[in-house]
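It is worth pausing here to work through a concrete case rather than discussing structure prediction in the abstract. The textbook approach is simple: state the sequence, then state the predicted structure, then interpret. We follow exactly that order.
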Amino acid sequence: MDWKELAAKIKNGYLISRNEALELASVPDKNALYSLANELREHFSGNHFDICSIMNARSGRCSEDCKWCAQSRHYHTDTEIYPLVTSDEAVALAAHNAKKGVHRFSLVTSGRTMSPKETEKACEIYKNIQKHVDIKLCASMGLLEKEELQVLYDSGVKRYHCNLETAPSFFPKLCTTHTTEDKLKTIRYAKEVGMEICSGGIIGMGESMEQRIEFAFTLRETGVDSIPINILTPIKGTPLENTQPLTDEEILTTVALFRIINPATVLRLAGGRKLVAHIQKQLLHSGINAVITGDMLTTSGYTIETDKTLISESGYIY
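Step two, the predicted structure:
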């Protein structure tokens, strides 16, 4: 493998093929692979690090049967159940995060979609945040129609989050109540109203390395702006509760390949970070250039202050 030649080609606009990605996944020199990913991140994105935060704005009772999710009503878990939060709660958390230096803030709701009344309430919340807080606004509210996305955009939401979750070939084994195409339709609608797209998923749900590569290429073809990578935290009561964890090498290799396949895209470390605490700095030098900070929906995350220390110690600015 001529690493310098490959780096130069990608910097000049070359996009690797699936066969090349498969070859890279099997190279014995993993440190060279990680270094290539870090070199590409530095070339395309510099040392700027993006920090976002989320609020679990409606929890539980989800109609969907996603096997990894504690919020599905199909499974028996200890997840809290509550309706859409109040505007005061959301504004207060957004203001706290902005004061701490967080760049983006998103409401995340459980469930397949939103009712018209809930969408209207969410729009009022976003308008109040925009009025009182200097922070970029995102939303993650399921499979919305174009009209709903338009009113969210008009209320200040400039980025929509809709995870594809995994490779299209593997998704039907994890969820039967909606499809990858359903998600892609929502993403297309969000783009049409002018939104940026945040879409990634979870690794370690039983998929193969080939399927992780398929997933990374699907995201590239979809043209997303930010890719959150979650590492599965098996949750008691869900069908994946006994799933074997990925090795450190599998995680690092996956992250590096996602960067090499999507060289200019923001690559965001998201849920499951406590499982990789011992390799976080290495991940930040293997392609990662963003994090979700604070609590991660149903699994605990990292505090803003500890993340800012990690980011600074890793040579980034935020």
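Step three, interpretation. The first helix runs from residue 3 to 11. The longest strand covers residues 50-58.
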